[in-house]
Amino acid sequence: MVLQPKSPMESQTEMTVRMFPSDANPAGNVFGGEILKQIDLIAGLVSQRHARTNAVTASIDRVNFLKPVYVGNALILNARLNYVHRSSMEIEIKVEAEDLMTGTRTLTNTAYVTSVALGPDGKTSEVPQLLIETEEDRKRFAEGERRMLQRLKERGKN
Ligand SMILES: CC(C)(COP(=O)(O)OP(=O)(O)OC[C@H]1O[C@@H](n2cnc3c(N)ncnc32)[C@H](O)[C@@H]1OP(=O)(O)O)[C@@H](O)C(=O)NCCC(=O)NCCS
Question: Which domains are seen in the chain, by residue range?
Fold first, then answer.
Protein backbone atom coordinates (compact mmCIF):
# COMPACT_ATOMS: atom_id res chain seq x y z
CA MET A 1 0.00 0.00 0.00
CA VAL A 2 1.33 3.44 -0.93
CA LEU A 3 1.10 5.90 1.95
CA GLN A 4 0.37 9.49 0.98
CA PRO A 5 2.76 12.04 2.55
CA LYS A 6 1.14 14.17 5.25
CA SER A 7 1.79 17.70 6.40
CA PRO A 8 3.02 18.18 9.98
CA MET A 9 0.02 20.53 10.38
CA GLU A 10 -2.34 17.52 10.14
CA SER A 11 -1.04 16.05 13.39
CA GLN A 12 -0.01 19.20 15.27
CA THR A 13 -1.65 19.16 18.69
CA GLU A 14 -2.27 21.61 21.52
CA MET A 15 -3.40 20.37 24.91
CA THR A 16 -4.26 22.28 28.09
CA VAL A 17 -4.35 20.58 31.47
CA ARG A 18 -4.99 22.19 34.83
CA MET A 19 -2.55 21.30 37.59
CA PHE A 20 -4.13 20.09 40.83
CA PRO A 21 -2.75 19.57 44.35
CA SER A 22 -2.57 15.86 43.54
CA ASP A 23 0.06 16.76 40.85
CA ALA A 24 2.39 18.40 43.40
CA ASN A 25 5.69 17.24 44.86
CA PRO A 26 6.32 17.47 48.63
CA ALA A 27 7.56 21.07 48.20
CA GLY A 28 4.20 22.08 46.72
CA ASN A 29 5.21 22.70 43.09
CA VAL A 30 4.16 20.46 40.23
CA PHE A 31 6.03 17.14 40.21
CA GLY A 32 8.44 16.77 37.26
CA GLY A 33 7.11 13.29 36.59
CA GLU A 34 3.63 14.72 35.99
CA ILE A 35 5.03 17.06 33.32
CA LEU A 36 6.92 14.16 31.72
CA LYS A 37 3.67 12.17 31.64
CA GLN A 38 1.91 15.00 29.77
CA ILE A 39 4.86 15.29 27.33
CA ASP A 40 4.67 11.55 26.63
CA LEU A 41 0.90 11.75 26.25
CA ILE A 42 0.88 14.55 23.68
CA ALA A 43 3.72 12.91 21.72
CA GLY A 44 1.56 9.79 21.50
CA LEU A 45 -1.36 11.83 20.16
CA VAL A 46 0.77 13.47 17.45
CA SER A 47 2.41 10.23 16.34
CA GLN A 48 -0.85 8.29 16.18
CA ARG A 49 -2.57 11.12 14.32
CA HIS A 50 0.21 10.94 11.74
CA ALA A 51 0.62 7.16 11.53
CA ARG A 52 -2.99 6.09 12.25
CA THR A 53 -1.53 2.96 13.87
CA ASN A 54 -0.34 2.13 17.35
CA ALA A 55 2.86 4.02 18.25
CA VAL A 56 5.19 3.56 21.21
CA THR A 57 7.70 5.89 22.80
CA ALA A 58 11.21 4.77 21.88
CA SER A 59 13.12 7.63 23.52
CA ILE A 60 12.79 11.00 25.19
CA ASP A 61 15.77 13.32 24.81
CA ARG A 62 17.06 15.27 27.76
CA VAL A 63 14.21 17.37 29.16
CA ASN A 64 15.13 20.65 30.81
CA PHE A 65 12.95 22.05 33.56
CA LEU A 66 13.44 25.76 32.95
CA LYS A 67 10.96 27.18 35.47
CA PRO A 68 8.68 25.72 38.16
CA VAL A 69 5.03 25.00 37.43
CA TYR A 70 2.63 25.83 40.25
CA VAL A 71 -0.51 24.09 41.42
CA GLY A 72 -3.46 25.93 39.84
CA ASN A 73 -1.51 26.76 36.64
CA ALA A 74 -2.78 25.62 33.27
CA LEU A 75 -0.11 23.55 31.55
CA ILE A 76 -0.21 24.24 27.81
CA LEU A 77 1.57 21.76 25.56
CA ASN A 78 2.19 22.29 21.86
CA ALA A 79 3.58 19.43 19.82
CA ARG A 80 4.40 18.79 16.19
CA LEU A 81 6.36 16.43 14.00
CA ASN A 82 9.78 17.54 12.84
CA TYR A 83 11.12 14.42 11.22
CA VAL A 84 9.95 11.05 10.01
CA HIS A 85 12.02 8.09 8.83
CA ARG A 86 10.59 4.63 8.05
CA SER A 87 8.72 3.84 11.28
CA SER A 88 10.19 6.47 13.62
CA MET A 89 8.90 9.99 14.19
CA GLU A 90 10.51 12.90 16.05
CA ILE A 91 8.01 15.08 17.91
CA GLU A 92 9.00 18.45 19.35
CA ILE A 93 7.09 19.58 22.43
CA LYS A 94 6.95 23.03 23.97
CA VAL A 95 5.42 23.37 27.43
CA GLU A 96 4.19 26.62 28.97
CA ALA A 97 2.61 27.32 32.35
CA GLU A 98 -0.19 29.89 32.40
CA ASP A 99 -1.05 31.78 35.55
CA LEU A 100 -4.82 31.82 35.26
CA MET A 101 -5.17 34.93 37.42
CA THR A 102 -2.92 37.12 35.26
CA GLY A 103 -2.74 35.29 31.92
CA THR A 104 1.06 35.32 32.08
CA ARG A 105 2.62 32.41 30.21
CA THR A 106 6.08 31.06 31.02
CA LEU A 107 8.05 28.59 28.92
CA THR A 108 8.81 25.73 31.33
CA ASN A 109 10.00 22.80 29.19
CA THR A 110 11.05 21.74 25.73
CA ALA A 111 11.50 18.14 24.69
CA TYR A 112 12.02 15.82 21.74
CA VAL A 113 10.27 12.46 21.80
CA THR A 114 10.82 9.63 19.32
CA SER A 115 7.80 7.43 18.66
CA VAL A 116 7.86 4.26 16.62
CA ALA A 117 4.80 2.97 14.75
CA LEU A 118 3.76 -0.64 15.22
CA GLY A 119 1.50 -2.65 12.96
CA PRO A 120 -1.25 -5.01 14.15
CA ASP A 121 1.41 -7.76 14.29
CA GLY A 122 3.41 -5.73 16.82
CA LYS A 123 6.25 -5.18 14.34
CA THR A 124 7.51 -1.73 13.39
CA SER A 125 5.54 -0.38 10.45
CA GLU A 126 6.08 2.30 7.84
CA VAL A 127 4.53 5.72 8.38
CA PRO A 128 3.57 8.40 5.83
CA GLN A 129 6.48 10.62 4.88
CA LEU A 130 6.32 14.27 5.88
CA LEU A 131 5.09 16.76 3.34
CA ILE A 132 7.59 19.60 3.46
CA GLU A 133 5.73 22.77 2.51
CA THR A 134 7.60 25.65 4.11
CA GLU A 135 11.16 26.75 4.77
CA GLU A 136 10.43 26.20 8.47
CA ASP A 137 9.37 22.57 7.75
CA ARG A 138 12.58 22.02 5.78
CA LYS A 139 14.75 23.43 8.55
CA ARG A 140 12.99 21.33 11.23
CA PHE A 141 13.31 18.19 9.11
CA ALA A 142 17.06 18.68 8.56
CA GLU A 143 17.67 19.36 12.25
CA GLY A 144 15.47 16.40 13.23
CA GLU A 145 17.45 14.12 10.93
CA ARG A 146 20.72 15.28 12.50
CA ARG A 147 19.38 14.60 16.02
CA MET A 148 18.03 11.18 14.98
CA LEU A 149 21.43 10.16 13.59
CA GLN A 150 22.98 11.22 16.90
CA ARG A 151 20.41 9.17 18.88
CA LEU A 152 21.10 6.09 16.80
CA LYS A 153 24.84 6.63 17.24
CA GLU A 154 24.37 6.78 21.01
CA ARG A 155 22.22 3.65 20.82
CA GLY A 156 25.13 1.93 19.04
CA LYS A 157 23.16 1.16 15.87
CA ASN A 158 24.98 3.59 13.56
C1 LIG B 1 10.81 1.10 20.11
C2 LIG B 1 10.93 -0.36 19.67
C3 LIG B 1 9.62 -0.77 18.96
C4 LIG B 1 12.07 -0.45 18.65
O5 LIG B 1 12.17 -1.79 18.31
P6 LIG B 1 13.51 -2.40 17.68
O7 LIG B 1 13.33 -3.84 17.44
O8 LIG B 1 14.66 -1.95 18.48
O9 LIG B 1 13.43 -1.74 16.30
P10 LIG B 1 14.54 -1.38 15.22
O11 LIG B 1 15.95 -1.41 15.72
O12 LIG B 1 14.19 -2.20 14.03
O13 LIG B 1 14.16 0.15 14.96
C14 LIG B 1 12.87 0.51 14.48
C15 LIG B 1 12.84 1.99 14.37
O16 LIG B 1 12.90 2.57 15.66
C17 LIG B 1 13.95 3.50 15.75
N18 LIG B 1 14.46 3.44 17.10
C19 LIG B 1 14.61 2.34 17.86
N20 LIG B 1 15.08 2.68 19.08
C21 LIG B 1 15.21 4.02 19.09
C22 LIG B 1 15.65 4.96 20.07
N23 LIG B 1 16.04 4.58 21.28
N24 LIG B 1 15.65 6.27 19.75
C25 LIG B 1 15.23 6.67 18.53
N26 LIG B 1 14.82 5.82 17.55
C27 LIG B 1 14.81 4.50 17.84
C28 LIG B 1 14.95 3.02 14.70
O29 LIG B 1 15.80 4.05 14.26
C30 LIG B 1 14.01 2.57 13.60
O31 LIG B 1 13.53 3.72 12.91
P32 LIG B 1 13.14 3.68 11.33
O33 LIG B 1 12.22 2.51 11.11
O34 LIG B 1 12.44 4.97 11.10
O35 LIG B 1 14.41 3.56 10.56
C36 LIG B 1 11.22 -1.32 20.86
O37 LIG B 1 12.48 -1.00 21.40
C38 LIG B 1 10.14 -1.28 21.93
O39 LIG B 1 9.09 -1.87 21.79
N40 LIG B 1 10.43 -0.55 23.03
C41 LIG B 1 9.44 -0.41 24.11
C42 LIG B 1 8.51 0.76 23.84
C43 LIG B 1 7.66 1.10 25.03
O44 LIG B 1 7.21 0.20 25.72
N45 LIG B 1 7.47 2.41 25.26
C46 LIG B 1 6.75 2.86 26.44
C47 LIG B 1 5.28 2.72 26.32
S48 LIG B 1 4.58 3.55 24.93
Answer: 8-155 (3.10.129.10)
Return the SS3 of 56.
strand
Looking at the DSSP bridge assignments, the partners of residue 137 are none
Which of the listed residues 61, 124, 127, 152 should we mutate to test ligand 1's pocket, taking the one with most ligand atoms within 8 A of CB?
124
Ligand 1 site, residue 151, Cβ cutoff 6 A: yes
- Per the confidence metrics, is the pTM higher than 0.90? yes
Distance (angstroms) between ligand 1 centre and the Cα of 155 equals 10
For residue 86 and ligand 1, the question of a CB distance below 6 A is answered with yes
Mind giving me the DSSP string for 107-145? EEEEEEEEEEEE-TTSSB---PPB---SHHHHHHHHHHH
**Dihedral (C-alpha) 25, 45, 149, 36: value to the nearest 10 degrees?**
0
Q: What pLDDT digit, counting tens, does each position of 54-104 carry?
A: 999 999 998 999 999 999 999 999 999 999 999 999 999 999 999 999 999
